[in-house]
Amino acid sequence: MKPSTSTGTDEVAARILHAGVGGISESDVTLAEGFNAAIIGFNVRAHKEAAAAAKRNGIEIRSYNIIYDLVDDVKKAMSGLLAPSVRETMLGNATIMEIFKVSKVGSVAGCRVTDGVVERGANVRLIRDSVVVHEGKLSQLKRFKDDAREVVAGQECGMAFENYQDMKVGDVIECYRVETVQRSL
Questions:
Q1: SS3 23
Q2: From the DSSP assignment, how many helices (H) and strands (E) are in the chain?
Q3: Which of 111, 102, 88, 92 is CA-nearest to residue 170?
Q4: How far is CA 147 from the centre of its chain?
Q5: Which residues have CB under 8 Å from 149's CB, separation 6+?
């Protein structure tokens, strides 16, 4: 291998600063310290002085005898540096049929679920005339006067949103879930 080669993705890359044969020396530790890098050895060990210098300076030395273990550990380390991806899953839609004023709660939207399912605590978008006027969380979901965990298509329910009261008859409510997925190489 040539020194200063890179592998990885556009976001994360592993650079090889130096490659050589023989045991891990103090100069290898000094080089790693300058770049705040780890030292990876394959079928070699660190000299006694190099191990002491690495411990003193907080430089990690990893030794491997099986190449697949080395490759897997480097991939895991690089995967940990990738930003997680955010995936949005649509749950369902509802239409506001009527607005009720409830003491201690404020405005509650009387809705009919038009498709899918609406879940308490899910993320919601309030859409008026094909324009998103609010994005937030569904704070309350009621079926008749009882709290409901979810309401399916064709049923009616009452909904209240966190920190938002300006709902109107005819508004459409999109209910969705946001999932964070850790990416890997």
A1: coil
A2: 3, 12
A3: 111
A4: 30
A5: 119, 120, 141
Bridge partners, residue 21, by sequence: none
28 sits in which H/E element: helix 26-35
Rounded CA separation 101/138 (Å): 17
Q: pLDDT tens across 115-151, in order?
A: 999 988 889 999 999 898 989 898 888 888 888 888 8
Kindly state the helix (H) or strand (E) to which residue 176 belongs, with its residue range. Answer: strand 172-181
> Residue 93's beta-bridge partner residues?
115, 174
Q: How many CB atoms lie within 10 A of CB 159?
A: 26
C-alpha 108/C-alpha 100 separation (Å) is: 5
Evaluate whether 74 touches 68 at the Cβ level (below 8 Å). Answer: no
Count of CB atoms within 10 A of residue 96's CB?
A: 19
Per-residue pLDDT tens over the stretch 15-73: 888 888 888 999 999 999 988 888 988 888 888 999 999 999 999 898 888 888 888 88
106-119 and 85-102: which strand pairing? antiparallel
- Could you write out the three-class secondary structure of 67-87? HHHHHHHHHHHHHHHCCCEEE
Nearest to 60 by CA among 26, 36, 25, 80: 36
Amino acid in position 44: V
Place of tokens 């990416």: 183
